[in-house]
Amino acid sequence: MERRIIHIDMDAFFAQVEQYDNPKLRGKPVIVGGRSFNRGVVATASYEARKFGVHSAMPTKTAHKLCPEGIFVHPRFERYKEISNQIKEIFLSYTEEIEPLSLDEAYLDITNLVDRQNSARSIALSIQSEIFEKTGLTSSSGISYNKYLAKIASGMNKPRGTTVIDYSNVLEILHQLPIGKFPGVGKVTEEKMFELDIKTGKDLYDKSMSELTAIFGKRGASLYNKARGIGTNELTVQRERKSIGKETTFNYDRNDDQEILLVLENLSEKVSERLLDKGMVANVVTVKIKTGDFETHTRQMMTVDPISSGPEIYHYAYNLYHEVKDQDVPIRLIGVSVSNLTKPLYRNLTIYDFIL
Ligand code: TTP
Ligand code: MG
């Protein structure tokens, strides 16, 4: 089945965030990076600064020379991370099939969202406008039938671009693409390509598989395929591995099972409350103890059914406690957590539903 993959990449990400947060910087050449004149490098530059030839990884010193009126700003990674999370939430509201590549770019597999009313392009445009509405920032998107083509496409009409590569235009685009723009071709490979007189996708296309494997080893085949529009469409999706946990540290080491289990029951109840708050159910329970000499031990168990109530969590925690606790060794900390969390699509039926 033909996949529809979108690659979304924020425009001049760090610089745009700085311009958004500080309106005085808007429309100006902003250069984000290390401000140390001798050792700093540029993380990124606003499009206004790029006109002067400033780009990522360039020494700050060079950027100063090229763009004397540039405004140099120190990066604020916490802020970028915050916005990155906001953007990720927007992606997740469209599909769970997402593969983030860095703070400012991700692949989305939107195959299942495409129908008669919604083309892949219109979905990409709608994601981009939603990002703009919620964060004030612009992005570019590329749409294709595999990952690396989507990534190439998103870079073709930056900033604020939306570009489709399909079977009708793929070879034309790849043939004229500078070799350094192929994902996976970094500076070193690019140099090697130049030595072989391979400057564009067409030059690469003209090489045989055996020539390329002789020069590039195992990567030869992948390069051969990349010149032809062939690449993987499988996303590496990070399933949420969130967990919810509570723990207590005692003010003295304890060894009395009754006492400890009372605490564990209490903690289970608190974990349940937070789980219910989120409207989620769990499939794994973990118990953690720390002994008096600071060794940590954990045990975990898959639940038979997804669980959420305090008594259910305690049921598993109780058994795990007896597995992990050495009768003769007092402990200073006990904790319980649940993980493998999901939102139930419908309420689980219980025996009471049948009685009624
Ligand atoms: P990119 O997406 O490569 O660049 P960009 O978003 O600044 O610009 P473009 O419009 O061309 O996509 O990288 C995203 C962020 O990662 C960038 O804003 C800053 C950071 N970064 C570095 O810190 N060092 C680097 O060498 C690069 C390339 C990026
Ligand atoms: Mg970017």
UniProtKB/TrEMBL annotation:
| UniProt remark on cofactor binding | Binds 2 magnesium ions per subunit.
Enumerate the InterPro entries for this protein. Answer: DNA/RNA_pol_sf, DNA_pol_Y-fam_lit_finger_sf, DNA_pol_Y-fam_little_finger, DNA_polymerase-Y, DNApol_IV, IMS_HHH_1, Rev_trsase/Diguanyl_cyclase, UmuC
Tell me the first and last residues of the signal peptide. none
Name the enzyme group at the top EC level: transferase
Transmembrane residues, as ranges?
none
Hey, where's the site called Substrate discrimination on this chain? F14
Q: Which reaction does it catalyse?
A: DNA(n) + a 2'-deoxyribonucleoside 5'-triphosphate = DNA(n+1) + diphosphate
Any one GO CC term of this protein is: cytosol
Q: Can you tell me which residues form the catalytic site?
A: E105
Question: Which residues are noted in the entry as Mg(2+)-binding?
Answer: D9, D104
Q: State the source organism's domain of life.
A: Bacteria
Q: Name one GO molecular function term.
A: magnesium ion binding
**Location in the cell:** Cytoplasm
Q: Name one GO biological process term.
A: DNA-templated DNA replication
Annotated family: Belongs to the DNA polymerase type-Y family.
Q: What is the protein's known function? A: Poorly processive, error-prone DNA polymerase involved in untargeted mutagenesis. Copies undamaged DNA at stalled replication forks, which arise in vivo from mismatched or misaligned primer ends. These misaligned primers can be extended by PolIV. Exhibits no 3'-5' exonuclease (proofreading) activity. May be involved in translesional synthesis, in conjunction with the beta clamp from PolIII.
Stored PANTHER family = DNA POLYMERASE KAPPA (PTHR11076:SF33), DNA REPAIR POLYMERASE UMUC / TRANSFERASE FAMILY MEMBER (PTHR11076)
Provide the assembly information: Monomer.
Protein name as it appears in the record: DNA polymerase IV
Q: Which organism is it from?
A: Jeotgalicoccus meleagridis
Taxonomic lineage of this organism? Answer: Bacteria, Bacillati, Bacillota, Bacilli, Bacillales
